[in-house]
């Protein structure tokens, strides 16, 4: 009877965690003119969410319940282990992406607040840094991530030029 109650609890957790994973994998809705700092903020938010989830999963309360279910040879543990693995991967991806995107952070200010001439001076270094991220990041080097990043960089450059033209 205790095992059944604990299995019910784990099944509720499983359902909630699956929902978090599904939501994290959905396509983001962003404004058409959002800049590259939004990319960093997105991954920081994901890192925070998944790290909190990992902390909860690693808590002593959850570990005790899982240990009891292991001793009872519960069938719910297979699903639980798979979700634990997926959460760990998602947390590692977010952490890694934040680390790599922080290398671009020094370009975000000049990209947003400089004149078009100054922006152009930063482009070679910016592109070199993006290229290094593409070559070395185990998670961020997909066409989807790179396209999203380039779109946001382009948006920021356009916004900077519009501001310059309207103020000039």
UniProtKB/TrEMBL annotation:
One of its GO terms (biological process) is microtubule-based movement. One of its GO terms (cellular component) is axonemal dynein complex. Transmembrane segments: none annotated. It comes from the Eukaryota. One of its GO terms (molecular function) is dynein light intermediate chain binding. Residues 4-166 form the Dynein heavy chain tail domain. InterPro entries: DHC, Dynein_heavy_tail. Pfam families: DHC_N1. This is DYH5 protein. It comes from Loxia leucoptera. The gene is Dnah5_0.
């Amino acid at each position: 009877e205790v095992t059944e109650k604990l299995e019910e609890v784990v099944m509720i957790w499983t359902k909630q965690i699956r929902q978090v994973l599904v939501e994290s994998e959905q396509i983001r809705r962003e404004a058409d003119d959002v800049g590259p700092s939004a990319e960093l903020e997105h991954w920081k938010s994901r890192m925070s969410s998944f790290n909190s989830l990992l902390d909860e999963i690693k808590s002593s309360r959850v570990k005790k319940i899982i240990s009891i279910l292991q001793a009872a040879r519960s069938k719910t543990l297979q699903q639980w282990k798979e979700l634990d693995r997926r959460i760990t991967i998602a947390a590692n991806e977010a952490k890694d992406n934040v680390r790599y995107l922080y290398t671009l952070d020094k370009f975000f200010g000049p990209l947003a607040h400089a004149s078009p001439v100054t922006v152009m001076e930063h482009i070679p270094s910016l592109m070199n840094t993006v290229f290094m991220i593409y070559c070395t990041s185990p998670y961020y080097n997909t066409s989807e991530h790179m396209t999203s990043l380039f779109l946001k960089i382009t948006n920021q450059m356009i916004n900077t030029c519009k501001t310059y033209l309207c103020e000039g």
